[in-house]
Amino acid sequence: MITGKNYIGNRLSANGSITYKTFNPKLNIENEFEFYEASVEEINEAAFLASDAYITYNQKSGKEKATFLNAIADNIIDLGDDLIQVYCAESGLPEGRAKGERGRTIGQLRAFATLIEEGSWVDATIDMAQPNREPMPKVDLRKMQVPLGPVVIFGASNFPLAFSTAGGDTASALAAGCPVIVKSHPMHAGTGELVASAIIKAAEATGMPNGVFSNLNSKGIEVGVQLVKHSAIKAVGFTGSITGGRALFDIAAQRDEPIPVFAEMGSINPVIMLPQALQNRATDLAKTYAGSITVGSGQFCTNPGLLMGIKSDGLTNFVNSLSEEIVKIEPSCMLHPNIIGAYEKNKQTAIDQAGLIVAADYGAEVSVNHARQAVVTVEGKTFLENSGLHQEVFGPFSMVVQCEDAKELQQIVSNLEGQLTGTIISEADEIANYPHVIAALQNRVGRIIFNGVPTGVEVCPSMQHGGPYPASTDSRFTAVGTHSIKRWVRPFSYQNWPDKLLPNELKNSNPLSIVRVIDNERTKKGI
Question: Which of 69, 238, 380, 468 could form a disulfide linkage to 403, CB 3.0–4.6 angstroms apart?
Fold first, then answer.
């Protein structure tokens, strides 16, 4: 049942005077439920509850936290069709997408549960004392990762489940031992409340401290700003626009105690199409990329917004085929009137730039809030001279840059801003001829793809979902996969500490049987 209230720990609260409703973009009407924006008092209560909860929660064993995460997953499943129906009503996305995203959310929770129950993720490192070492004795040092403290997670507009209330950021922070306050996204507050109820139910059933999780509603930006400024908060997770992510980053840096902001802020995901591959496969590649550009109405951070190639008959054939294929695809609904409004505005701004040629623009009538996909082309020289062309158009839009030669292609890649992904389309024996282009691309992205599409992000330990700024605020970390837990911890050392007072992860006997590094040797053996 949706109440429209905030979860302040395990208590529902609606003290604020600002209310709002979510919107059904497919029906073009407001949804029925009214939500209460969190008040200053509720924000403070949630933050201080989280701070108190941290004292107990960070001492919970990996097994106890794993039980909590698995209970969240079970409770989300138990929400059944109610969750799916609210998700679809608030996003305009189809039922199949909703169920797929729910599956990914559950999978992420269970993956982190498995990780922390096994326990080796804490990177326990031990250097034994050498009291007789000359000229100076060596002390006993033992190091492991410890949680930072209460974390604020901002729900993402384009993933109401997998990057929101119980998504990867929340799952990884809870797994690390950090209480979480979610700043619910206003476009899917109902979905958020249902998932929040599943988390609270799991916390109570597994004996987690009150305040380990809270869910706060907001119509605008003020709740998020106050949370990031709050002295009890020790880190922030964000998925969204460059403008929003950078604003939070700056706020956090200006605090008396600056805190890290791990923001994933979008990307145009450059795709380099080499000549031989285009000569051999232009038509097939066009069909593949027409689908990748338009999937989910282009509302993925890994959407291929920039395609690049060296001028050739193959590139010309590719552009012609892509233009034909992309307009065959039925337009789909975007998440909100504000998002399609921004898409149409940004698309037109791009089209109006000097030197751009519109290769394809869906011209038929579309249903309300459905996006017309478009492909434009531009000369490499023009692209280099106009940095405004480098900016993301969030939606089913892509730009093809036609380069004079490999040198200009390399120059363009080198001048791009940081990106989440880069893709190389090549024949097997062709890529070796472009080492400088590949090196330039590697310097600009967090993940490089060979003969594929960037859309689709596998959730596994090897995934890197982050990249040089502005793709993310810290390219050393990923927002997807089990290694994303490393955002919410810091290394901590014990020197000459009594064995019986050490955490189990560092005790001589290794009671958890985890993998540790002892005097530079990886082992599960005790000391």
Answer: 380
Name every residue whose Cβ is closer than 8 Å to that of residue 76 and which is 6 or more positions away in sequence: 83, 102, 105, 106, 109, 166, 195, 198
Q: How many CB atoms lie within 10 A of CB 351?
A: 15
Of 369, 383, 381, 428, the closest CA to residue 405 belongs to 381
Q: Which tokens hold the place of 244?
A: 């929003």
pTM: 0.96
419-425 vs 445-450, strand pairing mode: parallel
Comparing C-alpha atoms, which of 97, 66, 111, 161 is closest to residue 463?
A: 111
Give the pLDDT confidence score for residue 1 in this predicted structure: 86
Q: How many CA atoms lie within 13 A of 398 on its CB side?
A: 29
Exposure string (b/e) for 317-328, b if CB count within 10 Å is 16 or more? bbbebbbebbbe
Residue 236, SS3?
strand
How many CB atoms lie under 10 A from the CB of residue 493? Answer: 12
Bridge partner residues of 489 (DSSP): 147
Q: How far is CA 372 from CA 40, 416, 474, in A?
A: 41, 26, 34
- β-bridge mates for residue 401, sequence order: 308, 378
Catalytic residues: 264, 301
3-state class (DSSP) for residue 125 = strand
Which among 493, 474, 483, 9 is positioned nearest to 236, based on CA atoms? 474
**Using omega within 30 degrees of 0 as the cis cutoff, is the peptide bond preceding 470 cis?**
yes
Instruction: In whole angstroms, give the CA distance from residue 474 to residue 156.
Output: 18
332-381 confidence digits (pLDDT tens): 999 999 999 999 999 999 999 999 999 999 999 999 999 999 999 999 99
Per-residue model confidence as pLDDT tens digits over 261-296: 999 998 999 999 999 999 999 999 999 999 999 999
Q: In what order do the strands lie in the sheet with 489-495?
A: 489-495, 141-147, 125-127, 516-518, 521-523
Question: CA 349 to CA 507: how far, in whole Å?
Answer: 61
> What are the structure tokens assigned to 446, written together?
């967090």
- Count CA atoms within 13 Å of residue 113 on its CB side: 16
